[in-house]
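Worked example 4.2. Below are the chains of a multi-component assembly; read each line carefully before continuing.
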Amino acid sequence: MEIKILGPGCVNCQKVEKLVREVVAEAGVVADIEKVSDIMKIAKYGVFGTPAVVVDGKVKSVGKIPKKEEILAWLSKAVQ
Amino acid sequence: MSECCAKNAAAGLVAIRMSPEKPKTKVWLPAALIPPFVLFYLYLEDGVNWLVYSLLSLDRSSHLTEAVRFFLFEVPKVLLLLTAIVFVVGIIRSYFSPEKTRKALEGKPLFLGNIMASSLGIVTPFCSCSAIPLFIGFMESGIPLGVTFSFLIAAPMINEVALVLLFGLFGWKTALLYASTGLLIAIAAGWVIGKLKLERFVEAWVYEIKAAELAIEERKPPFSERIQAGYTAVADIVSKVWIYIAIGIAVGAGVHGYVPENFMASLMGKSAWWSVPLAVLIGVPLYSNAAGIIPIIQALLEKGASLGTSLAFMMSVIGLSLPEMIILKKVVKLPLILIFIGIVASGIMVVGYLFNLIY
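Applying the procedure described above to all two chains together yields the following structure tokens:
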């Protein structure tokens, strides 16, 4: 599973990265987590708000800090 | 594919360990807090006066006493107001999102688009690091350049922290004036930028981006989550901002107590015609959040600075931020950035002069 966290580095983006890493660790799922900070790369994903989370190439959340339950839902969908 | 709720999906998966349920959001708490809140607010000034004059028996005529009284009164008052408003705005903001704003603005005719974009800029949650993705997203949906700029002007300038502080320190009329003139500047500047047909200054690669296939379900959060959003907003914003408020009010208290009346009149008073452009000139490269600058503005006002000049200064500090310009430079070429700054600065100056005339 590949998870990308998109954000140029403001506080919210860092919070999202921390939260995603926590949830992945707690759920015991194997995932490749990468933070993308470059504006142009972020733009190429076509998202228009940061922080954003992309799981296995699909954009799951844009412009807010997702809830734990939401992240868990994405993980379980991806593992299926 | 239809989506079962999060709990079922996660529970169906043996491999994923669930963390324990978070405690329920206390939905009733805000309502219960209203009576003590109101009482505290109404009696705060009397309470502080009693504390300073009776309990501590400080000398009424001394500068230090006045500075202390001012500080002890204003800090709790402003923090209280801030908490209340940030909470309410946090809830309001949970009803908005950049995505919804984008959809609402698509295809709207120019002037209406400017008005909507400016108004939505106030209520849409906006983190300044999202400025670029948001800009690109708006352009991508075919929202005109001018409308996008209306949004980008209104969003940082007219924020609830600024409005609360203005209301708390100057009264509702000033807060309303700031909000309405800020809106007008956002609408007008955005409209002008649109009319100047400056699309050629947007970096080419922006137009080449395709909007992502968004696999996001638009969920309607339960009301308790909206209340939670209010709590989170309070925790986030107040924790970041209280120190600036305290420092700002302390500086204000010092000026209030010690600096002689009319000290600022020669520099920032009405008669100095160049005070408005000067204020804007100084304000543009400076960037501060509202919390830091407004108490200082209050101190300046008391010492003779005119309302127009002070407002102009405040708007240029808060509304035009150098960090945001630097970020925006990646998607927009320098000439457009300069024109943008120029138009907004001019708008602010007009407001400044207008207020100096009226007040």
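Take a moment to check your reading of the output against the notes. Chain A touches chain B at residues 7-10, 12-13, 26-29, 39-40, 42-50, 52, 58-64, 68-70, 72-73, 75-77, 79-80 (CB under 8 Å). The longest strand of chain A covers residues 2-6.
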